[in-house]
Specification:
By secondary structure, this protein is of the alpha/beta class. It is about 40% helix and about 15% strand. It binds 6-O-phosphono-beta-D-fructofuranose.
C-alpha cells in the first residue's frame, strides 16, 4: 500500500524524459524520484546513458551520437531497449513509477518506447525539458557534463567542444513532443513555463505541480529543533512547554550563529511551528518569522504530556505497537509518522519554490520527515533519523542531492 493516500492499488506510471543533452533531464528525473519515494511510491530511474557507459565504455566521442553514423545509431538503440526491458521487468516485480531517462528526441523513438510500455498496461507521460536560456545550458555543461566519466582525463575546452558537437547532432533530429503523441508536460527554462497536455489523474497532476515549483538557484536550507524545553528535560512528549535554561542559551547561540552568516542572511526566511518552544527559539534572531501549523510536532493524542516511561507502564500495548512499527503506528486520537509526512507536503513544495535561504525551527518528528525528503532517505528510516537538540543542520543542494553540515551550538541538559 502506498503511503501517499492509502491506495491499495499501486500506481503504474512511466515518465519518459525528453530533451536535448544538458537540459537538466537527469536532474529533473532524480528530483521527481526523490519526491515520489518520499511519498512512499516505489520509484526508479533508468538512465540510458549509464547503460551506454557500462556496456560500451564511457569514452565515446561526439561521432558516436551522429544520426548519420549507422553503427552508433544501432548501438544507442540497443542501449535504449536494454534499459526499457529492465524497466518493464522492474514494473513486473511491483515497481510503481519508472522514469525512463534518455533524450528520446525523435517522435519515432518515443512511439517505439510508448507502444512497448502501453502494451504492458502502463500509463505514459512524456516529461520534456526545453531550455532556451543559454546561461543555464552553459552552466549545466560545466557543472555536470564535464564531470561525467565520458570526459575523464580530457581538457575542459576539448570536453566542452565535444559535448557541444554532441548536442548539435541531437538538434538536427529533435522533434518536440506533439499533442498527437499523448500526455506530456513541457517544462521550459526549469519551471519558467510549464505546459501540461492531457495530464490526468491524481499522481500525474501532483507531479506537474511539483515540476512547477522546481528551480536550480543555489541556496541553503537550515533545519533545527527548538531549544531544549522543560518537557525535554523530563522526557515528556508533546505539550506546549517553554524553553529550559539550556534552551534559552541555545536561543541566543542560534541568533549569534545566524547573525554571523553570509550577507544573504537578510533575506533568510525563518519558519517555525505554532508551538511556543519554536517561536521562543526563533525570537532572538531578529528576522520576521512565519508560523506553520504543518510544522507542529507529531500529535501524541492520548499520550500527550506523558513521559516515555509512563507510556510504557500505563499503556503497554501502545508502547509495544509503536516499537513494532514506529512509521505507521498512530497514537490514540493522535498521529503517526505517515500522517506527519503527508501534512509536510505543502512545506516541501514551498521549500522547493523558495529561492532564498530558509531556516526551519521545528520539532524532532517533523524535521525527520523534512530531512528524509532533502537527503532522499526512505520512509522506513524516518522515525529513527538522528536530529538531536541544539544541532543546526545545513543542507545545500548540489548537482544531484544535498551537501550536509552540522553545527552543535549550546549543549542541552545532560
Ligand atoms: O521528545 C521530544 C519530541 O519532540 C516529542 O514531543 C515527540 O513526541 C517526539 O520527540 C518524537 O520523537 P519519537 O517519535 O522518537 O518519539
Amino acid at each position: 500500500m502506498s503511503l501517499l493516500d492509502g491506495r491499495r492499488d499501486p500506481a503504474r506510471l512511466a515518465l519518459v524524459m525528453v530533451g536535448l543533452p544538458a537540459r537538466g533531464k537527469t536532474h529533473m528525473a532524480r528530483r521527481l524520484a526523490r519526491y515520489l519515494r518520499w511519498l512512499g511510491v516505489s520509484t526508479r530511474v533508468f538512465n540510458v546513458g549509464n547503460y551506454r557507459r557500462e556496456r560500451l565504455g564511457s569514452h565515446q566521442s561526439h561521432d558516436f551520437f551522429d544520426p548519420d553514423n549507422p553503427e552508433g545509431r544501432e548501438a544507442r538503440r540497443e542501449m535504449a531497449m536494454a534499459a526499457l526491458e529492465d524497466m518493464l521487468a522492474w514494473f513486473a516485480s511491483g515497481g510503481e513509477v519508472g522514469l525512463y531517462d534518455a533524450t528520446n528526441t525523435t517522435a519515432g523513438r518515443r512511439r517505439l518506447v510508448a507502444e512497448r510500455l502501453r502494451a504492458h498496461g502502463l500509463d505514459v507521460v512524456f516529461v520534456e525539458s526545453v531550455c532556451e536560456d543559454e546561461a543555464v545550458i552553459a552552466s549545466n555543461i560545466r557543472q555536470t557534463k564535464l564531470r561525467m566519466p565520458d570526459y575523464a582525463g580530457v581538457s575542459e575546452d576539448e570536453a566542452v567542444a565535444d559535448f557541444r558537437a554532441r548536442i548539435a547532432h541531437y538538434e538536427r533530429v529533435y522533434e518536440p513532443v506533439d499533442e498527437s503523441e499523448g500526455s506530456y508536460v513541457r517544462v521550459v527554462d526549469v519551471g519558467r513555463k510549464v505546459v501540461a497536455h492531457r495530464v490526468q489523474g491524481y499522481l500525474p497532476s501532483r507531479l506537474v505541480h511539483f515540476l512547477m515549483n522546481l528551480h536550480v538557484a543555489p541556496r541553503s536550507i537550515w533545519l533545527t529543533r527548538h531549544g531544549e524545553s522543560t518537557f525535554n528535560v523530563e522526557n515528556r512528549v508533546g505539550g506546549d512547554p517553554g524553553l529550559s535554561p539550556a534552551g534559552e542559551r541555545f536561543r541566543e547561540a542560534l541568533a549569534a550563529h545566524v547573525g554571523g552568516l553570509e550577507a544573504s542572511r537578510k533575506d533568510m526566511r525563518v519558519w517555525t511551528s505554532t508551538l511556543r518552544r519554536t517561536r521562543e527559539t526563533a525570537s532572538a534572531i531578529g528576522l520576521p518569522t512565519e508560523e506553520w501549523r504543518s510544522l507542529d510536532e507529531i500529535d501524541a493524542g492520548a499520550c500527550d504530556g506523558m513521559t516515555y516511561d509512563e507510556i510504557r507502564d500505563q499503556l503497554p500495548k501502545e508502547h509495544a505497537a509503536r516499537r513494532e512499527n514506529k512509521l505507521t503506528y498512530r497514537y490514540p486520537r493522535g498521529e503517526s509518522y505517515v500522517d506527519v509526512i503527508r501534512r509536510l507536503e505543502p512545506v516541501i513544495l514551498e521549500l522547493e519554490r523558495e529561492r532564498r535561504p530558509v531556516l526551519v525551527v521545528a520539532h524532532q518528528a517533523v524535521l525527520r520527515g523534512l530531512y528524509a525528503y532533502l537527503m532522499d532517505r526512505p520512509p522506513k528510516e524516518v522515525p529513527y533519523l538522528p536530529v538531536p537538540l541544539h544541532t543546526v543542520i545545513r543542507l545545500t543542494p548540489i548537482t544531484y542531492g544535498c551537501e550536509e553540515e552540522r553545527f552543535t551550538l549550546a549543549p542541552a541538559s545532560p
